[in-house]
Protein backbone atom coordinates (compact mmCIF):
# COMPACT_ATOMS: atom_id res chain seq x y z
CA UNK A 1 0.00 0.00 0.00
CA UNK A 2 1.48 3.29 -1.04
CA UNK A 3 1.75 6.12 1.45
CA UNK A 4 -1.32 8.29 1.04
CA UNK A 5 0.89 11.39 1.20
CA UNK A 6 2.34 10.39 -2.16
CA UNK A 7 -1.05 10.38 -3.81
CA UNK A 8 -1.36 13.19 -6.35
CA UNK A 9 -4.42 15.42 -6.36
CA UNK A 10 -6.94 14.73 -9.07
CA UNK A 11 -7.10 17.54 -11.65
CA UNK A 12 -10.11 19.75 -10.81
CA UNK A 13 -13.19 19.84 -13.00
CA UNK A 14 -14.37 22.94 -14.83
CA UNK A 15 -17.68 23.44 -16.58
CA UNK A 16 -18.04 21.95 -20.06
CA UNK A 17 -19.66 25.26 -21.07
CA UNK A 18 -22.25 25.89 -23.77
CA UNK A 19 -20.05 24.95 -26.73
CA UNK A 20 -19.12 21.38 -25.80
CA UNK A 21 -20.62 20.11 -29.07
CA UNK A 22 -17.59 21.39 -30.95
CA UNK A 23 -15.28 18.94 -29.23
CA UNK A 24 -17.68 16.15 -28.29
CA UNK A 25 -20.18 15.93 -31.14
CA UNK A 26 -18.98 18.08 -34.04
CA UNK A 27 -21.19 16.36 -36.64
CA UNK A 28 -24.28 17.35 -34.64
CA UNK A 29 -23.47 21.04 -35.23
CA UNK A 30 -22.47 20.55 -38.87
CA UNK A 31 -18.71 20.47 -38.37
CA UNK A 32 -18.78 17.55 -40.78
CA UNK A 33 -15.34 17.27 -42.24
CA UNK A 34 -13.46 16.12 -39.16
CA UNK A 35 -14.73 12.86 -37.65
CA UNK A 36 -16.54 10.13 -39.57
CA UNK A 37 -18.87 9.58 -36.61
CA UNK A 38 -19.46 11.36 -33.35
CA UNK A 39 -18.32 9.33 -30.38
CA UNK A 40 -21.04 7.16 -28.80
CA UNK A 41 -23.64 7.67 -31.57
CA UNK A 42 -24.74 4.07 -31.04
CA UNK A 43 -23.92 2.25 -27.80
CA UNK A 44 -23.82 -1.23 -29.33
CA UNK A 45 -22.95 -2.28 -32.85
CA UNK A 46 -24.65 -5.23 -34.56
CA UNK A 47 -27.59 -5.67 -32.22
CA UNK A 48 -30.89 -7.15 -33.30
CA UNK A 49 -33.48 -4.34 -33.15
CA UNK A 50 -36.03 -6.47 -31.35
CA UNK A 51 -33.70 -6.73 -28.35
CA UNK A 52 -33.49 -2.97 -27.96
CA UNK A 53 -35.14 -0.64 -25.49
CA UNK A 54 -35.68 3.12 -25.71
CA UNK A 55 -35.14 5.38 -22.72
CA UNK A 56 -36.40 8.89 -23.27
CA UNK A 57 -36.75 11.92 -21.04
CA UNK A 58 -35.73 15.49 -20.34
CA UNK A 59 -33.33 17.29 -18.02
CA UNK A 60 -35.09 20.02 -16.01
CA UNK A 61 -33.44 22.97 -14.28
CA UNK A 62 -34.64 24.66 -11.07
CA UNK A 63 -37.19 26.72 -13.00
CA UNK A 64 -38.74 23.59 -14.46
CA UNK A 65 -37.33 24.37 -17.89
CA UNK A 66 -36.32 21.39 -20.03
CA UNK A 67 -32.73 22.04 -21.12
CA UNK A 68 -31.33 21.49 -24.60
CA UNK A 69 -27.67 22.37 -24.01
CA UNK A 70 -26.77 19.48 -21.71
CA UNK A 71 -24.68 16.50 -22.74
CA UNK A 72 -25.62 13.08 -21.43
CA UNK A 73 -23.26 10.13 -21.43
CA UNK A 74 -24.20 6.57 -20.55
CA UNK A 75 -22.11 3.51 -19.81
CA UNK A 76 -23.51 0.04 -19.34
CA UNK A 77 -22.92 -3.68 -19.70
CA UNK A 78 -24.55 -5.77 -22.41
CA UNK A 79 -27.63 -7.98 -21.94
CA UNK A 80 -25.42 -10.69 -20.38
CA UNK A 81 -23.90 -8.40 -17.77
CA UNK A 82 -20.56 -8.10 -19.59
CA UNK A 83 -18.65 -4.84 -19.99
CA UNK A 84 -17.22 -4.68 -23.50
CA UNK A 85 -14.69 -1.82 -23.59
CA UNK A 86 -15.89 0.45 -26.41
CA UNK A 87 -19.37 -1.08 -26.67
CA UNK A 88 -21.88 0.18 -24.14
CA UNK A 89 -20.98 3.85 -24.24
CA UNK A 90 -23.42 6.44 -25.62
CA UNK A 91 -23.37 10.22 -25.79
CA UNK A 92 -26.40 12.35 -26.69
CA UNK A 93 -28.19 15.66 -26.23
CA UNK A 94 -31.89 16.56 -26.03
CA UNK A 95 -33.63 17.47 -29.27
CA UNK A 96 -33.76 21.24 -29.85
CA UNK A 97 -37.52 21.22 -30.48
CA UNK A 98 -38.92 18.56 -28.15
CA UNK A 99 -36.21 18.99 -25.46
CA UNK A 100 -36.24 15.22 -25.14
CA UNK A 101 -33.30 12.86 -25.33
CA UNK A 102 -33.60 9.33 -26.67
CA UNK A 103 -31.30 6.46 -25.80
CA UNK A 104 -31.73 3.40 -28.01
CA UNK A 105 -29.81 0.55 -26.40
CA UNK A 106 -29.97 -2.99 -25.02
CA UNK A 107 -31.45 -3.60 -21.61
CA UNK A 108 -28.41 -4.23 -19.43
CA UNK A 109 -28.03 -7.56 -17.63
CA UNK A 110 -27.10 -8.00 -14.00
CA UNK A 111 -23.62 -7.02 -12.81
CA UNK A 112 -22.12 -7.99 -9.47
CA UNK A 113 -20.73 -5.39 -7.14
CA UNK A 114 -17.24 -5.75 -5.68
CA UNK A 115 -18.55 -7.92 -2.86
CA UNK A 116 -20.04 -10.35 -5.33
CA UNK A 117 -23.62 -9.25 -4.72
CA UNK A 118 -25.92 -8.94 -7.71
CA UNK A 119 -27.02 -5.45 -8.65
CA UNK A 120 -30.27 -4.74 -10.42
CA UNK A 121 -29.82 -3.89 -14.11
CA UNK A 122 -28.78 -0.27 -14.45
CA UNK A 123 -27.14 2.25 -16.75
CA UNK A 124 -24.58 4.75 -15.43
CA UNK A 125 -25.46 8.28 -16.51
CA UNK A 126 -23.34 11.42 -16.43
CA UNK A 127 -24.52 14.96 -17.19
CA UNK A 128 -22.31 17.88 -18.21
CA UNK A 129 -23.31 21.40 -19.21
CA UNK A 130 -22.98 25.13 -18.86
CA UNK A 131 -23.69 26.03 -15.24
CA UNK A 132 -22.41 22.71 -13.90
CA UNK A 133 -18.93 23.15 -12.45
CA UNK A 134 -18.61 19.40 -12.23
CA UNK A 135 -20.07 16.53 -14.22
CA UNK A 136 -22.97 14.88 -12.35
CA UNK A 137 -23.27 11.12 -11.94
CA UNK A 138 -26.39 9.08 -11.43
CA UNK A 139 -27.92 5.75 -12.49
CA UNK A 140 -30.94 4.62 -14.45
CA UNK A 141 -32.76 1.59 -13.00
CA UNK A 142 -35.86 0.03 -14.55
CA UNK A 143 -39.41 -0.28 -13.28
CA UNK A 144 -40.46 -3.92 -13.21
CA UNK A 145 -37.07 -5.23 -12.09
CA UNK A 146 -36.28 -6.42 -8.57
CA UNK A 147 -35.25 -3.12 -6.98
CA UNK A 148 -35.59 -4.25 -3.36
CA UNK A 149 -32.38 -6.22 -3.21
CA UNK A 150 -30.07 -3.83 -5.06
CA UNK A 151 -27.18 -2.83 -2.73
CA UNK A 152 -26.87 0.73 -4.05
CA UNK A 153 -30.61 1.48 -3.95
CA UNK A 154 -30.75 0.07 -0.39
CA UNK A 155 -27.93 2.38 0.59
CA UNK A 156 -29.73 5.39 -0.91
CA UNK A 157 -32.93 4.44 0.85
CA UNK A 158 -31.03 4.31 4.14
CA UNK A 159 -29.70 7.81 3.37
CA UNK A 160 -33.31 8.96 2.82
CA UNK A 161 -32.55 9.60 -0.83
CA UNK A 162 -35.33 9.74 -3.37
CA UNK A 163 -34.89 6.33 -5.03
CA UNK A 164 -37.86 6.97 -7.33
CA UNK A 165 -35.70 9.54 -9.11
CA UNK A 166 -33.44 6.69 -10.24
CA UNK A 167 -36.09 4.42 -11.72
CA UNK A 168 -37.14 4.70 -15.35
CA UNK A 169 -40.91 4.28 -15.73
CA UNK A 170 -42.08 1.55 -18.03
CA UNK A 171 -44.57 3.00 -20.53
CA UNK A 172 -44.92 -0.07 -22.70
CA UNK A 173 -42.80 -3.00 -23.81
CA UNK A 174 -39.28 -1.72 -24.50
CA UNK A 175 -40.10 1.94 -23.80
CA UNK A 176 -39.05 3.73 -20.62
CA UNK A 177 -39.24 7.36 -19.45
CA UNK A 178 -36.44 8.80 -17.31
CA UNK A 179 -36.53 12.51 -16.43
CA UNK A 180 -33.70 14.22 -14.59
CA UNK A 181 -34.40 17.06 -12.13
CA UNK A 182 -31.36 19.16 -11.28
CA UNK A 183 -33.19 20.96 -8.44
CA UNK A 184 -36.53 21.13 -6.64
CA UNK A 185 -38.86 18.70 -4.84
CA UNK A 186 -38.10 15.99 -7.33
CA UNK A 187 -34.33 16.58 -7.41
CA UNK A 188 -32.56 13.52 -8.78
CA UNK A 189 -30.14 11.67 -6.52
CA UNK A 190 -26.58 12.29 -7.70
CA UNK A 191 -23.65 10.17 -6.61
CA UNK A 192 -20.20 10.65 -5.32
CA UNK A 193 -18.92 7.48 -7.04
CA UNK B 1 -8.03 -12.29 -6.12
CA UNK B 2 -7.42 -8.66 -6.97
CA UNK B 3 -10.33 -6.29 -6.74
CA UNK B 4 -10.19 -2.78 -8.16
CA UNK B 5 -11.70 0.31 -6.60
CA UNK B 6 -11.38 4.05 -7.15
CA UNK B 7 -9.66 6.46 -4.79
CA UNK B 8 -12.33 8.59 -3.09
CA UNK B 9 -12.68 12.02 -4.65
CA UNK B 10 -11.36 14.92 -2.55
CA UNK B 11 -14.01 17.62 -2.94
CA UNK B 12 -11.81 20.21 -1.23
CA UNK B 13 -9.73 20.25 -4.40
CA UNK B 14 -12.74 20.51 -6.71
CA UNK B 15 -14.99 23.44 -7.67
CA UNK B 16 -18.04 24.32 -5.63
CA UNK B 17 -21.06 23.12 -7.61
CA UNK B 18 -23.40 25.82 -6.30
CA UNK B 19 -21.32 28.98 -6.83
CA UNK B 20 -23.46 32.16 -7.06
CA UNK B 21 -20.71 34.24 -8.75
CA UNK B 22 -21.20 31.95 -11.74
CA UNK B 23 -24.78 32.86 -12.58
CA UNK B 24 -25.55 29.83 -14.73
CA UNK B 25 -25.03 27.57 -11.73
CA UNK B 26 -27.96 29.14 -9.84
CA UNK B 27 -30.73 27.06 -11.38
CA UNK B 28 -28.62 24.09 -12.43
CA UNK B 29 -26.48 23.09 -9.45
CA UNK B 30 -28.23 20.38 -7.40
CA UNK B 31 -28.98 21.50 -3.84
CA UNK B 32 -28.82 18.13 -2.10
CA UNK B 33 -25.58 16.57 -0.98
CA UNK B 34 -24.28 13.85 -3.26
CA UNK B 35 -24.72 10.36 -1.90
CA UNK B 36 -21.47 8.49 -1.64
CA UNK B 37 -21.56 5.00 -3.11
CA UNK B 38 -18.72 2.48 -3.10
CA UNK B 39 -17.00 2.24 -6.45
CA UNK B 40 -18.26 -0.62 -8.31
CA UNK B 41 -17.68 -2.77 -11.41
CA UNK B 42 -19.96 -0.43 -13.33
CA UNK B 43 -17.68 2.55 -12.75
CA UNK B 44 -14.40 0.67 -13.19
CA UNK B 45 -14.39 -1.28 -16.47
CA UNK B 46 -14.20 1.04 -19.46
CA UNK B 47 -15.09 2.55 -21.79
CA UNK B 48 -11.82 2.20 -23.69
CA UNK B 49 -11.53 3.63 -27.17
CA UNK B 50 -9.84 2.10 -30.16
CA UNK B 51 -7.09 4.04 -31.91
CA UNK B 52 -8.80 3.25 -35.22
CA UNK B 53 -11.25 6.09 -34.50
CA UNK B 54 -8.44 8.67 -34.49
CA UNK B 55 -7.65 10.30 -37.83
CA UNK B 56 -4.19 11.52 -38.81
CA UNK B 57 -4.95 15.21 -38.34
CA UNK B 58 -7.26 14.91 -35.34
CA UNK B 59 -4.64 16.42 -33.02
CA UNK B 60 -3.55 19.14 -35.48
CA UNK B 61 -6.10 21.94 -35.26
CA UNK B 62 -3.99 24.13 -37.56
CA UNK B 63 -4.71 21.73 -40.45
CA UNK B 64 -7.76 19.62 -39.63
CA UNK B 65 -10.23 22.26 -40.81
CA UNK B 66 -8.10 24.31 -43.17
CA UNK B 67 -9.27 24.98 -46.71
CA UNK B 68 -6.66 24.75 -49.45
CA UNK B 69 -3.92 24.44 -46.84
CA UNK B 70 -4.65 27.94 -45.54
CA UNK B 71 -3.55 28.44 -41.95
CA UNK B 72 -5.94 29.64 -39.28
CA UNK B 73 -5.18 33.13 -37.95
CA UNK B 74 -3.23 33.57 -34.73
CA UNK B 75 0.02 32.14 -33.48
CA UNK B 76 0.63 28.43 -33.37
CA UNK B 77 1.07 26.67 -30.06
CA UNK B 78 1.87 23.17 -28.94
CA UNK B 79 -0.13 21.95 -25.97
CA UNK B 80 1.33 18.80 -24.52
CA UNK B 81 1.65 16.84 -21.30
CA UNK B 82 0.87 13.52 -19.71
CA UNK B 83 -2.19 11.81 -18.32
CA UNK B 84 -1.48 9.82 -15.18
CA UNK B 85 -3.47 8.51 -12.24
CA UNK B 86 -3.09 9.64 -8.64
CA UNK B 87 -0.36 7.03 -8.06
CA UNK B 88 1.71 8.62 -10.87
CA UNK B 89 1.05 5.70 -13.21
CA UNK B 90 0.86 6.93 -16.81
CA UNK B 91 -2.46 6.11 -18.48
CA UNK B 92 -2.07 4.92 -22.05
CA UNK B 93 -4.90 5.06 -24.54
CA UNK B 94 -6.70 7.82 -22.64
CA UNK B 95 -9.00 9.69 -25.02
CA UNK B 96 -8.58 13.47 -24.88
CA UNK B 97 -11.06 15.64 -26.73
CA UNK B 98 -10.51 19.39 -26.85
CA UNK B 99 -12.48 22.42 -28.02
CA UNK B 100 -11.63 26.09 -28.03
CA UNK B 101 -12.34 29.55 -29.43
CA UNK B 102 -10.36 30.91 -32.38
CA UNK B 103 -7.73 33.67 -32.15
CA UNK B 104 -10.48 36.31 -32.02
CA UNK B 105 -12.24 34.60 -29.11
CA UNK B 106 -15.09 33.21 -31.27
CA UNK B 107 -16.42 29.65 -31.24
CA UNK B 108 -17.65 27.97 -34.41
CA UNK B 109 -21.07 27.54 -32.81
CA UNK B 110 -24.47 29.08 -33.56
CA UNK B 111 -25.05 29.84 -29.87
CA UNK B 112 -21.92 32.00 -29.60
CA UNK B 113 -23.30 35.55 -29.66
CA UNK B 114 -19.92 37.27 -29.34
CA UNK B 115 -19.67 39.63 -32.37
CA UNK B 116 -16.17 38.50 -33.33
CA UNK B 117 -15.25 36.93 -36.69
CA UNK B 118 -15.22 33.18 -37.29
CA UNK B 119 -12.14 31.75 -38.95
CA UNK B 120 -13.02 29.64 -41.99
CA UNK B 121 -9.88 27.56 -41.43
CA UNK B 122 -10.42 26.78 -37.80
CA UNK B 123 -13.01 24.59 -36.07
CA UNK B 124 -11.44 24.50 -32.61
CA UNK B 125 -12.06 20.74 -32.39
CA UNK B 126 -9.43 18.06 -31.84
CA UNK B 127 -8.77 14.72 -30.16
CA UNK B 128 -5.97 12.31 -29.39
CA UNK B 129 -5.22 9.08 -27.54
CA UNK B 130 -2.29 9.10 -25.12
CA UNK B 131 0.81 7.04 -25.99
CA UNK B 132 2.17 4.18 -23.89
CA UNK B 133 3.93 6.70 -21.61
CA UNK B 134 0.68 8.63 -21.07
CA UNK B 135 1.82 11.57 -23.20
CA UNK B 136 -0.30 13.60 -25.59
CA UNK B 137 0.27 16.54 -27.90
CA UNK B 138 -1.88 18.99 -29.84
CA UNK B 139 -0.84 21.57 -32.40
CA UNK B 140 -3.28 24.47 -32.40
CA UNK B 141 -3.46 28.25 -32.25
CA UNK B 142 -3.64 30.50 -29.22
CA UNK B 143 -7.33 30.96 -28.34
CA UNK B 144 -8.42 34.55 -27.66
CA UNK B 145 -10.17 35.72 -24.49
CA UNK B 146 -13.82 36.71 -24.95
CA UNK B 147 -16.68 38.56 -23.26
CA UNK B 148 -19.75 36.71 -21.97
CA UNK B 149 -22.81 37.70 -19.92
CA UNK B 150 -22.52 36.86 -16.21
CA UNK B 151 -22.63 39.62 -13.58
CA UNK B 152 -22.85 42.10 -16.41
CA UNK B 153 -20.28 41.48 -19.14
CA UNK B 154 -17.21 39.59 -17.96
CA UNK B 155 -14.23 38.17 -19.80
CA UNK B 156 -13.18 34.55 -19.91
CA UNK B 157 -9.43 34.03 -19.70
CA UNK B 158 -7.85 32.26 -22.68
CA UNK B 159 -8.59 28.56 -22.30
CA UNK B 160 -8.94 25.20 -23.97
CA UNK B 161 -11.67 22.76 -22.89
CA UNK B 162 -10.50 19.22 -22.18
CA UNK B 163 -12.63 16.07 -21.94
CA UNK B 164 -10.74 12.95 -20.79
CA UNK B 165 -11.62 9.27 -20.56
CA UNK B 166 -9.12 7.12 -18.66
CA UNK B 167 -9.78 3.42 -18.18
CA UNK B 168 -12.88 3.78 -16.03
CA UNK B 169 -16.15 5.70 -16.29
CA UNK B 170 -15.47 6.83 -12.71
CA UNK B 171 -12.24 8.53 -13.86
CA UNK B 172 -14.10 10.68 -16.37
CA UNK B 173 -12.93 14.31 -16.24
CA UNK B 174 -14.05 17.48 -18.01
CA UNK B 175 -11.96 20.57 -17.36
CA UNK B 176 -10.26 23.62 -18.89
CA UNK B 177 -6.62 24.55 -19.34
CA UNK B 178 -5.60 28.18 -18.85
CA UNK B 179 -2.42 29.96 -19.96
CA UNK B 180 0.39 31.01 -17.68
CA UNK B 181 0.49 34.77 -17.14
CA UNK B 182 -3.09 35.56 -18.20
CA UNK B 183 -4.36 38.30 -15.83
CA UNK B 184 -7.98 37.24 -16.46
CA UNK B 185 -7.51 33.89 -14.68
CA UNK B 186 -7.84 35.33 -11.19
CA UNK B 187 -10.95 37.30 -12.14
CA UNK B 188 -12.81 34.32 -13.53
CA UNK B 189 -15.69 32.99 -11.37
CA UNK B 190 -15.41 29.54 -12.95
CA UNK B 191 -11.77 29.33 -11.87
CA UNK B 192 -12.61 30.84 -8.48
CA UNK B 193 -15.28 28.23 -7.87
CA UNK B 194 -12.22 26.18 -6.81
CA UNK B 195 -11.24 27.39 -3.32
CA UNK B 196 -7.90 25.59 -3.10
CA UNK B 197 -5.08 27.72 -4.58
CA UNK B 198 -2.87 24.78 -5.52
CA UNK B 199 -5.77 23.04 -7.26
CA UNK B 200 -6.54 26.25 -9.16
CA UNK B 201 -2.93 26.56 -10.29
CA UNK B 202 -2.90 23.00 -11.55
CA UNK B 203 -5.22 24.14 -14.37
CA UNK B 204 -2.69 26.63 -15.71
CA UNK B 205 -0.60 25.35 -18.62
CA UNK B 206 3.04 26.30 -18.11
CA UNK B 207 5.05 27.98 -20.83
CA UNK B 208 7.55 25.32 -21.93
CA UNK B 209 10.53 27.11 -23.45
CA UNK B 210 12.43 23.88 -24.09
CA UNK B 211 9.83 22.82 -26.63
CA UNK B 212 9.29 26.37 -27.92
CA UNK B 213 12.93 26.79 -28.92
CA UNK B 214 13.10 23.57 -30.90
CA UNK B 215 9.93 24.05 -32.89
CA UNK B 216 9.88 27.81 -33.18
CA UNK B 217 6.36 27.57 -31.85
CA UNK B 218 5.25 28.52 -28.35
CA UNK B 219 4.63 25.45 -26.22
CA UNK B 220 2.57 24.93 -23.08
CA UNK B 221 2.69 21.94 -20.78
CA UNK B 222 -0.45 20.70 -19.08
CA UNK B 223 -0.33 17.49 -17.05
CA UNK B 224 -3.59 15.81 -16.12
CA UNK B 225 -4.21 13.57 -13.12
CA UNK B 226 -7.19 11.21 -13.12
CA UNK B 227 -8.47 9.33 -10.09
CA UNK B 228 -6.37 6.40 -8.96
CA UNK B 229 -7.58 2.82 -9.33
CA UNK B 230 -6.54 0.77 -6.31
CA UNK B 231 -5.96 -2.97 -6.43
CA UNK B 232 -6.87 -4.74 -3.23
CA UNK B 233 -6.06 -8.40 -2.66
CA UNK B 234 -8.78 -10.53 -1.10
CA UNK B 235 -8.05 -13.93 0.34
CA UNK B 236 -10.65 -16.61 1.05
CA UNK B 237 -12.79 -15.33 -1.74
CA UNK B 238 -14.92 -17.90 -3.42
CA UNK B 239 -15.22 -18.04 -7.15
CA UNK B 240 -18.49 -16.60 -8.42
CA UNK B 241 -19.55 -14.93 -5.22
In CATH, the architecture of chain B is: Sandwich
Number of strands of chain B: 14
Could you say what the CATH topology of chain A is called?
Protocatechuate 3,4-Dioxygenase, subunit A
CATH architectural label of chain A: Sandwich
CATH class of chain A: Mainly Beta
Order of helices and strands of chain B: EEHEEEEEEEEHHEHEEE
**What is the gyration radius of chain A calculated from CA atoms?**
17 Å
**Structural class per helix/strand content of chain A?**
mainly beta
CATH class of chain B equals: Mainly Beta
Oligomer: heterodimer
Q: How far apart are the first and last residues' alpha carbons of chain A, in Å?
A: 22 Å
Distance between the termini of chain B: 12 Å
Strand content of chain A: 25-35%
Largest interface: A-B, 78 and 92 residues
Strands of chain A, count:
11
Provide an overview of this structure.
The complex is a heterodimer of chains A (193) and B (241). Chain A is mainly beta. Helices cover 6% and strands 26% of the residues of chain A. Chain A is built from two helices and eleven strands; from the N terminus they run αβββββββαββββ. In chain A, strand 6 and strand 7 (136-142) form a beta hairpin. Chain A is globular. With 241 residues, chain B is mostly beta strands. Chain B has one domain (2-32, 59-233): Aromatic compound dioxygenase (Protocatechuate 3,4-Dioxygenase, subunit A, Sandwich), CATH 2.60.130. Helix content of chain B is 8%, strand content 31%. Chain B is built from four helices and 14 strands. The longest helix of chain B is centred in the last third of the chain and has 7 residues, at 209-215. At the A-B interface, helix 1, strand 6, helix 2 and strand 11 of A face strand 1, strand 2, helix 1, strand 4 and strand 5 of B.
Amino acid sequence: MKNSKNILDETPFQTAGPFLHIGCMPNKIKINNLYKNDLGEVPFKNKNETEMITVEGSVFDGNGIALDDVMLETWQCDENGQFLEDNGFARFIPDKLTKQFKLFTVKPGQVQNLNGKNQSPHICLSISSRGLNMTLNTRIYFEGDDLINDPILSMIKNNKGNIHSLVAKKIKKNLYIFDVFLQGDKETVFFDV
Amino acid sequence: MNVKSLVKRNYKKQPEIDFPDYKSSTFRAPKNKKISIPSNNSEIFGPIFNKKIIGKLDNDLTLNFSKNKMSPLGHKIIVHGTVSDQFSNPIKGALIEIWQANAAGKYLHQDDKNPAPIDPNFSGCGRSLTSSDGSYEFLTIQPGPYPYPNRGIEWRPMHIHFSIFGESFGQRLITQMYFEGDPLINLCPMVNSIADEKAKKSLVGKLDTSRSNIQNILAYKFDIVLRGVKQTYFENRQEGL
